[in-house]
């Protein structure tokens, strides 16, 4: 092995992509001490997206206080690249790790994300990339929109900030007060999935359970997103129900497209372009990628598959090292994944497994390297 390219996503709630790269490098050098290892920690719109861009292009972090998932005061941040492009990961203000086990998709807000966008625009960024992944929310992006001047009115004409359970109260949407500076800003939404807003593959049905919603709440949240879509179509003239990526971040993808004309694009493709992935593949013998769980959702635009498609085009094998392997992932092999390995070495619940994940990752990569040495 002369050159190995490491390009993992974070394992959400356990290890950052940077930490994963460090553990992988140590295990690989034990067996291939003279190999060239190129580590590119990436994210596809969720947590770690800002660090990925800053690592690729340089720049700085801007820190400020915003509203968190439950409207609490929160220390947050965004990145500014050398060309003054701002990179915001919505997870930094409304992410699932911020709520811990206190998960209530019906009560959480994206308001703080709007505050980050406003600050970036008002301090001079004319292009803002918003990573739409890892959310604890299901408010259709209405909280962020409210922070940026959109007014949501109930039947009595009173303005309020909707959350997932109150989207049905929206009787009218007034976009006349949108922050004026946004008119001269290009907004790009990085989506880690291409799900629709509502229905069987929508934001609530697919993602709300992991955000604390039971079966009845999932149905309520889905109906409420449908109501939001109806009012948007009537008042703004945009049909967002089936826009690919509209269901990202609890429907924030659809909301941002409706309220601000945000261009939605696959997050991993945005990152791969920024790090020059195709050039990095030159001379590589192997690519190792990974994410917390590979499943049918991974096939809809996440890190491993995005990397695998390009590696396959270049004729380079890719091994996926993941936390967990779901059902129905056979298509991953057709997309360019050569092999998939789970780091879970014992049958244990997540809370126990996360305590040993670093050692398990190191052991898994060590075993892969031992196998490759047999044919080196």
UniProtKB/TrEMBL annotation:
What biological process terms from GO does the record include? organic acid phosphorylation
Q: Which InterPro entries match?
A: Glyc_kinase_flavodox-like_fold (IPR018193), Glycerate_kinase (IPR004381), Glycerate_kinase_RE-like (IPR018197), Glycerate_kinase_sf (IPR036129)
Q: Mind listing the UniProt keywords for this protein, alphabetically?
A: Kinase, Transferase
Question: Pfam families of this UniProt entry?
Answer: Gly_kinase (PF02595)
Q: SUPFAM superfamilies of this UniProt entry?
A: Glycerate kinase I
* PANTHER family listed in its UniProt record: GLYCERATE KINASE
Q: Which family does it belong to?
A: Belongs to the glycerate kinase type-1 family.
- This protein is called Glycerate kinase
The species is Ruminiclostridium hungatei (Clostridium hungatei)
Lineage of this protein's species?
Answer: Bacteria, Bacillati, Bacillota, Clostridia, Eubacteriales
């Amino acid at each position: 092995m002369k050159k190995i390219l490491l390009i993992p996503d974070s394992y959400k709630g356990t290890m950052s992509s940077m930490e994963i790269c460090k553990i992988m490098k140590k295990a690989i050098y034990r067996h291939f001490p003279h190999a060239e290892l190129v580590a590119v920690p990436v994210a596809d719109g969720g947590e770690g997206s800002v660090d990925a861009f800053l690592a690729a292009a340089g720049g700085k972090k801007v820190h400020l206080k915003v509203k968190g998932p439950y409207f609490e005061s929160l220390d947050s941040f965004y990145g500014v690249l050398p060309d003054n492009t701002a990179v915001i990961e919505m997870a930094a203000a409304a992410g699932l790790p911020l709520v811990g086990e206190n998960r209530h998709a019906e009560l959480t807000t994206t308001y703080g994300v709007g505050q980050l966008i406003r600050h970036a625009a008002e301090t001079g960024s004319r292009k803002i990339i918003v990573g739409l992944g890892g959310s604890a929310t299901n408010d259709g992006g209405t909280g962020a929109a409210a922070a940026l001047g959109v007014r949501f009115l109930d039947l009595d004409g009173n303005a309020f900030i909707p959350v997932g359970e109150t989207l049905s109260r929206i009787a009218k949407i007034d976009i006349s007060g949108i922050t004026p500076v946004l008119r001269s800003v290009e907004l790009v939404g990085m989506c880690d999935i291409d799900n629709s807003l509502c229905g069987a593959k929508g934001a609530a049905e697919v993602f709300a359970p992991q955000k604390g919603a039971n079966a009845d709440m999932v149905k309520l949240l889905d109906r409420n997103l449908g109501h939001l879509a109806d009012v948007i179509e009537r008042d703004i003239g945009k049909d967002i129900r089936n826009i690919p990526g509209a269901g990202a971040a609890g429907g924030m993808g659809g909301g941002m497209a409706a309220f601000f004309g945000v261009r939605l694009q696959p997050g991993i493709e945005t990152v791969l372009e920024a790090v020059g992935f195709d050039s990095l593949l030159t001379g590589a013998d192997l690519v190792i990628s990974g994410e917390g769980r590979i499943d049918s959702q991974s096939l809809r635009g996440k890190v491993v598959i995005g990397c695998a498609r390009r590696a396959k085009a270049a004729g380079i094998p890719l091994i996926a090292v993941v936390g967990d392997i779901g059902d129905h992932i056979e298509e991953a092999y057709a997309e360019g994944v050569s092999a998939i390995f789970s780091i879970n070495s014992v049958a244990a619940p997540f809370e126990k497994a996360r305590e040993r994940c670093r050692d398990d990752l190191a052991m898994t990569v060590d075993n892969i390297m031992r196998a490759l040495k047999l044919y080196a």
